[in-house]
Specification:
Blueprint: E1 2-7, H1 15-25, E2 31-35, H2 39-44, E3 47-50, H3 52-55, H4 77-89, E4 94-99, H5 101-112, E5 117-121, H6 137-158, E6 161-166, H7 173-181, E7 186-188, H8 196-210, E8 213-218, E9 232-236, E10 242-243, H9 247-259, E11 263-267, H10 279-297, E12 303-308, E13 311-316, H11 317-322, H12 329-335
Parallel strand pairs: 1-2, 1-4, 4-5, 5-12, 6-8, 6-11, 7-8
Antiparallel strand pairs: 2-3, 9-10, 12-13
6-O-phosphono-beta-D-fructofuranose binds at residues 9-10, 100, 123-125, 167-169, 219, 244, 273.
Length: 340
């Protein structure tokens, strides 16, 4: 049997642990072909064979040894044809696609035309539904919490307001959990609307009573009452997403203008995604990899591995891509006991 593997979308700590898990769990007569740079490798026919020696020790490395891209093979008909030609020419019996919503939506499309595919959920944003956690999220929260921890002393010394921008497009999981762990004084996320005025009032109150303020803000958040575009909508990827960023700078400018406080923006951005995965993400990635290979062995295709409680289970890929896993209101409400 010959199994293709690819990593698509934004890189994420733990990807290499999944690849290693897949290779280690294969049967002796199974060959693994690692396609390079996500779906692009399936279009261009770029791959590397993966053996035990190739994956030794890679689970501790950040990024992905296979490279990644945001290529959508269903965007152009010629690419779709070329991808299926490649898979046929290389005699790929089945494919494991490791990625977030976009990569998995391609996998779901392939499953719908009966190509044997298995999905593995990946994203630091933790917004893939049908799974309790995606690997990479734990690492991102740790990096974010560490950064906010460090800001307390400098913010306090200078009596400043800090807006810390963390990744999270539609779901504010990273800002919420990193902010909560590190004691941010306010956490604003896309799921729960707030006006500019409400934010400024809370910052002002905190400055008057605590002497400094740290606000964790998810990059996808926008106050409900502003109509200007914060983000760079000239940069659109193959799945139609614009490049986010700008909310911390915007809030910093407004805070200086309206409240007069010494205010700074810290944009954590890709720092959250880079570097070595936490032990939790190494283990979760490894378990996902092994389970993905088990599904391949059972020819249980069209499914995505998932974490439910402490069990690794599987669900139809199409269910996972049907909705995003947003922060539930009850959870946000509980976290908000610690800020505001
Ligand atoms: O993979 C998800 C994500 O990390 C988002 O949180 C973020 O908006 C986006 O990727 C950034 O993508 P890029 O690496 O293309 O700038």
């Amino acid at each position: 049997m010959r199994v293709g593997v690819l990593t698509g979308g934004g890189d994420c700590p733990g990807l290499n642990a999944v690849v290693r898990g897949i290779v280690c769990a294969r049967d002796p007569d199974t060959e693994i072909y690692g396609f390079m740079n996500g779906w692009q490798g399936t279009i261009l026919g770029e791959y590397i064979p993966l053996t035990d020696a190739d994956v030794e020790g890679i689970h501790i490395l950040g990024g992905t040894i296979l490279g990644t891209s945001r290529t959508n093979p269903f965007k152009k008909e010629a690419d779709t044809r070329q991808m299926f030609d490649t898979l046929e020419r290389l005699k790929i019996d089945s494919l494991i696609a490791i990625g977030g919503d976009d990569t998995l939506s391609v996998a779901a499309k392939m499953a719908s035309v009966h190509f044997p595919v298995v999905g593995v959920p990946k994203t630091i944003d933790n917004d893939v539904s049908q799974t309790d956690y995606t690997f990479g999220f734990h690492t991102a929260v740790n990096v974010g919490a560490d950064a906010i921890d460090r800001l307390h002393s400098t913010a306090k010394s200078h009596k400043r307001v800090f807006y810390v921008e963390l990744m999270g497009r539609e779901a504010g999981w990273i800002a919420l959990e990193a902010g909560m762990a590190a004691g941010a004084h306010l956490i604003v996320i896309p799921e729960y609307p707030m006006t500019l005025d409400e934010i400024l009032k809370m910052v002002d109150r905190r400055m008057k009573h605590g002497g400094y303020a740290i606000v964790a803000v998810a990059e996808g958040f926008k106050p409900v009452d502003i109509d200007n575009t914060l983000h760079d909508d000239s940069q659109i990827d193959a799945f139609g997403h614009i490049q986010l960023g700008g909310i911390a700078n915007y809030l910093t400018k407004i805070t200086k203008e309206k409240l007069g406080y010494d205010t700074r923006a810290v944009i954590l951005g890709h720092l959250l995604r880079g570097g070595t995965p936490t032990a939790f993400d190494r283990i979760l990635g490894s378990r996902y990899g092994v389970q993905a290979m088990e599904l391949i062995k059972k020819r249980d295709y069209g499914r995505m591995v998932a974490l439910k409680g402490n069990e690794i289970v599987s669900v139809p890929i199409e269910y996972a891509v049907a909705t995003k896993k947003l922060v539930p209101y009850e959870y946000y409400k509980m976290c908000s006991l610690f800020f505001g």
